[in-house]
Fold:
Amino acid sequence: MLAVSRRLAYLSAVLLVTAIRLAAAWMSATARCRRAGLPGTALAIVVEQIHRAGPTAVKVAQLLSTRLDLLPPRVCRALATLHDDAPPIPAGVARRIAAERLGAPLETLFRTFTPLPGASGSIACVYRAELADGTVVAVKLRRPGIASTIAADLRLFRLGSSLIADTRLMRGLPTRAAVAQLSAAIADQLDFTREAAALAAVADAVSGFPHVRVPRPHPDLADPARTDAGVLVMDFVAGLARRTPADLGAAASARAVESSLDAVYKMLFTDGLVHCDLHPGNLYFFPDGSVCVLDAGFVVALPAAAQRAFTEFFFRMGTGNEARCADLVLSTVDPPVGFDDAGFRRELGALVRSVTGSRAQEFELLDFAVRLFDIQRRFGLYADPQFVFPLLGLLVLEGAIKEYHPTADFQGLAVPHLMRAMFAPQHPERLLIRH
Structure:
């Protein structure tokens, strides 16, 4: 309770400062500026204050930046600028907690343990270590105290959302459901046992792609019982760097993009796995055109029925089956009283017709998603997240890779995977990763 009280006091102060800054911006602006530029100024202030609010607020904002089904595109773009950087855990503290969580002195586990992290985020830091046999591994350590801070913030987040959920402004929006989804997604990123299982599942799913690498966990060093304490040991990937299209060249860029799409489509349509966080910090391209996927903290395992519905929706969209596309969308929602079924089908049909048979350069997934979600909102529909997550995962991926290969045929590369999934036997429910 003390942790909650402290966080409430701190977050209240941040909220008060945000309100004062927004009010000052409003009062100092002319009428023309208010109409033309103030929304952008207000968003910039909000983004800055979110960063001051701490890791939970940043994580919530990052997740919301992908939720085009809930927020306008300009708000999503502003939230996507937030970065999850934080000072490293002090070297002495890192060594101590690594030994405690691994259950043995580091000298008995590793030949070397580099105290300066290769990556330092708000939830965890990642360190390079070398085993006695020369194998290099990455050791991911959850920050001490971060679990209690995030738990307190999420409790306040849920309390605040419950207070506004029934107000006139929020009425009709899936506020409680959205908050529950966001809270679960953030809590999952603290669960390294779950992440280890997700890493193994993703690595297995893409094992047939020679140009795609996913670091595998080392349960012999950190078994599930100990990863609950906040440590994950996995393969170390050397040579990670942010490379531009100019750094790679056209051929390597094209190979990397097509390998990424192939792997993601196979995961989604065949295995029912969605990596919802393939932004440039989790997807790395190499000069030979190979790809590395990192961080499985936000991987969703779809129930078989949800995977089938999403797969069929894109298959039917490609063949122009408007009626079936509408049926599939409606199967994932709870239509409101007085729902205009005919009007919804008419508008969705127009959307499907506008993209059916379009050439690769003409199809924009972002534009399609914005229009789809806009139609749903206008008719009072809010889709099940099991249907939304795959589309949002593809949107994040598209944003990360499109500049590397602007003419990539997103639809064409999906077709073989769609065909195999549509005519394959039904998959049993997946139990490896909690969904």
About this structure: Residues 242-435 form one domain. The chain has two domains: 2-83+147-181, 242-435. The first helix runs from residue 2 to 28. DSSP finds 19 helices and ten strands in the chain.
